[in-house]
Amino acid sequence: MAVKVISYDLNAPGQDYEPLYKEIRSFPGYCLAMDSVWLVSTEKSCQGVFDKLKQHIDDDDFLLVNVLSGYRQGWLKKSVWEWIKKHE
Fold first, then answer.
1. Distances (CA, A) of 53 to 12, 57, 72, 75, 79
2. DSSP-assigned states of every residue in 16-61
3. Chain segment 17-45, per-residue pLDDT in tens
4. Residue 70, helix vs strand vs coil
5. Which pTM was predicted?
6. Are 56 and 65 in contact (CB under 8 A)?
7. How many CA atoms within 13 Å lie on the side-chain side of 31?
């Protein structure tokens, strides 16, 4: 399985985005890396992940799904780095 990065801007104040978060948590493996960034372990393509999530966002929201490649650098919680190592 590949790790996909899901990032978003949710722009509707007061909107209930729990269905989006529930959908993200339905993947075989998931990790909340930052406030608006999740990592998911899945065999689905980026398009497949996007299609699964787009039903839970509004027209004025933004959603990006991409593959976590071997080339990366950042400052994250130790638990997030451990999750990445476990699922890459």
1. 16, 7, 25, 27, 25
2. --HHHHHHHTTSSEEEEEETTEEEEEESS-HHHHHHHHGGGS-TT-
3. 899 999 999 999 999 999 999 999 999 99
4. coil
5. 0.92
6. no
7. 21
CATH no. for residue 75?
3.30.70.240
Distance CA 3, CA 21 (A): 17
Burial per residue of 38-73, b for 16 or more beta-carbon CB atoms within 10 angstroms, e otherwise: bbbbbebebeebbebbeebbeeebebebeebeeeee
Residue 7 has pLDDT above 90, yes or no: yes
Q: How many domains does the chain have?
A: 1
CA pair distance 66, 45, nearest whole angstrom: 9
Q: How many residues does the chain have?
A: 88
Domain encompassing residue 69 = 2-87
